């Protein structure tokens, strides 16, 4: 398999990290949570470039040992352009999965995740801004319509079809 980085875009609480870590495990790849690459002393909107450079370093380091890296990171167009250009120049294929969900499904009690007041507000803003539904995504998965296992299986199946992963990886 050629080197491939797959970003999972979506609003807070849509399941980017949960889905991404399980996909990486099942596909024999490496998982990076973009939250772990954020500058802790800066707000998210002022640290975008620092975060992007940190993600690139983490991906390149992981690719010394594997050919697939999955990154959970909400993406705006400018970050997508940065990652697409940076990785393409290094002959690494780049794609994005959009993980969308309604506000009510994200905050549903069965998901067992508590959100701060700020996060509740930010989820609504991110949904309105189109996180998880970007035109550069190769697929959009609605993580609020099914349980996790069904969402995982749908994503695996679509990845196999669209990216040509060998059947033994899925």
Quick overview of this protein structure:
The chain has 170 residues and is α/β, with parallel strands linked by helices. It has helices at 16-27, 48-62, 77-89, 103-106, 117-128, 148-163, and strands at residues 4-9, 30-33, 68-72, 93-100, 139-142.
3D structure, described in words:
By secondary structure, the protein is of the alpha/beta class. The protein has a single domain (4-160), classed as P-loop containing nucleotide triphosphate hydrolases (Rossmann fold, 3-Layer(aba) Sandwich), CATH 3.40.50.300. The protein has helices at 16-27, 48-62, 77-89, 103-106, 117-128, 148-163; strands spanning 4-9, 30-33, 68-72, 93-100, 139-142. A five-stranded parallel sheet has the order 2-3-1-4-5, sandwiched between helices. Helix 2 runs parallel beside helix 3 (77-89). The chain is globular, with a radius of gyration of 15 Å.
Strand order of the largest sheet: 2-3-1-4-5
- Alpha-carbon Rg, integer: 15 Å
Work out the number of β strands.
Answer: 5
In DSSP terms (H or I, runs of 4 or more residues), the helix count works out at 6
The CATH architecture name reads 3-Layer(aba) Sandwich
- Share of residues in strands: 15-25%
Straight-line N-to-C gap: 13 Å
- SSE topology string: EHEHEHEHHEH
Mean pLDDT score: 91
Portion in helices: 40-55%
The helix/strand class is: alpha/beta
What top-tier CATH class fits best? Alpha Beta
Coarse morphology? globular
Could you list some keywords that capture this structure?
170 residues, alpha/beta, five-stranded parallel β-sheet, 42% helix, globular
